[in-house]
Amino acid sequence: MTFELQYTDTKSNARAGLITTDHGQIQTPIFMPVGTLGTVKGVHLHELKNDIKAQIILGNTYHLYLRPGLDIIEGAGGLHKFNGFDRPMLTDSGGFQVFSLSGIRKLREEGVEFRSHIDGSKKFLSPEVSMEVQMALGSDIVMAFDECVPYPADYDYAKKSTERTIRWLKRCKEAMTAPNQGLFGIVQGGMYKELREWSARETTAMDLPGYAVGGLSVGEPKELMYEMLEYSTSLLPQDKPRYLMGVGTPDCLVEGVQRGIDMFDCVYPTRVARNGMAMTWTGRLVMKNAQFTHDHHVLEEGCGCYACRNGYTRAYIRHLVRAGEIFGLRLLSLHNLYFLQEFMRRMRQAILDDRFTEFRSDFFNHYQMHGKQ
Questions:
Q1: pLDDT tens digits, residue range 97-116?
Q2: Does pTM surpass 0.85?
Q3: Structure confidence by residue, pLDDT tens digits, 309-333
Q4: What sign does the CA torsion over 277, 255, 62, 65 have?
Q5: Of the N and C termini of the chain, which has fewer Cβ atoms inside 10 Å?
């Protein structure tokens, strides 16, 4: 995996780049749809490639490890052949999912023992096991096994957790033996600049193909998230891609790009679609609301998604959502994913044209914030 930094905006830290992998190239900044179990919920992979034009999707190590299991995916020849997606894929380490199971897991230096949420059986995940699973999956980008520091967390807890993440990263690097897979380290440190500086120094000293900023968007105020993000990215090398994990609302994407982030992922666009919400350039539309009962306009004029270009109206989609029809939720999923891909394409072009600051200002002048999305 290689990264080419193509342009940096002259008035901000916004960057345009190109990641090259065995399964294709990725133009950054990029939003990556999340395919937890090898598929993005409610969306066909053909639609992801040809309609939404997703350049890369995610797979989830924890979930695929438990079901269908390593032997089945290995037997298929890896995740690309198992699900038929022939473009780049990133797999997370499973760490975030394991640590969210705080009541049914035991954390120790060797790794984490936990009970499967599927059948209650005992499982074990460690840096070595995570790398073994991800090598079997054959993803293009592999995430290090880390501990996500929760919010809030006191200094002593954050320090011990961050130190353990570095020790685990060293083990991940030793265990990752597949030369065609790029291992990304994850900078942790909670909300403490001193710890983030130490984490970034130790992580980047390993000279990895890329770096992620972890432990943000975990419940902290957005102002604090942006402060920690800006500080963290200032500590990362210019010639490697930077990935902010778990962020997918338009406002956070703009602010992340402004602070030098190249890659994002989140379940947000499909999750809110399944709850009847559409994403637009001016804000969100809650399709269950009565205001759309007689609204015979498409979700957003000029949108090229399947729903809008085929004339499916707000009134019709509202009817489908209220009636519990799966087609309505599919239309919203297709729209939201297309919207975010187009959003990132336009933002990238604005960077290349050296007008990102104008793009950001215009966006916030028209976008209606609805509290914490």
A1: 877 777 778 889 999 998 88
A2: yes
A3: 999 999 999 999 999 999 999 999 9
A4: positive
A5: C
